Amino acid sequence: MISLSSLGAQSWMNLTDSPEDTVRISTRSATEPGQPIGLILCAVSTTRLPFSRLQLFDFLRYIQNRAQIMEGRSIGNSIHELTHIANGGSHSGNCISLFRIDHAQPIQGPSSSSQIAEYVLQESYSNECESVIAYSTMEVGRVLGRTDPSTTPILPLGFVMVLINQTRCSTAECSTSTGNIRQDPGCILTVGVQALASTNPDDDLNLDAAITIHSKMMI
């Protein structure tokens, strides 16, 4: 998610003048291994929610729930967790997972071919003050180990949840996975999305691509 921060002097802009429009977009040129080569379109949106940070974290960790929010649909297919690796911390949801989604109907693959399985690599982590979920779909061939993993192009997207009042963040006041400490009084949710807008890093941003990702973030 570091590529969605303000590092690198990225210039963020909005597409509308509406005060209710919290979506900001930017672009960056990607030329190094580990991500698709080309012009990357980034979009972020931040909002305040009257829900416990950990409740929201647990809700968004599940692919089925995220699909309803980000895509306005229910996946309606079987989801299998192929690998689960704990990555520290006290929360049971702190892990790196690889999921396989078996689609009832073929979907369009990255090479314009249909496929009935989709793989999602996800990392989720929560501590006393913040929670992060980052994930990305992956090509089948790369998941099965037929290529060098260090060259696997990944464009992560996901969520960052923080307490509304950071000064309240202490062992005695923050929510924890034990459930015996007072729940968060709401949280700030930031959604970050990335998409390959062009395979040429020197291209200018296409307005249609910006409008598409903006519409996705407004659902």
UniProtKB/TrEMBL annotation:
Organism of provenance: Heracleum sosnowskyi
Pfam name, any one: PDF2_C
The name this protein goes by in its record: HD-Zip IV C-terminal domain-containing protein
Residue ranges of every copy of the HD-Zip IV C-terminal domain listed in the record: 4-215
InterPro entries linked to this entry: HD-Zip_IV (IPR042160), HD-Zip_IV_C (IPR057993)
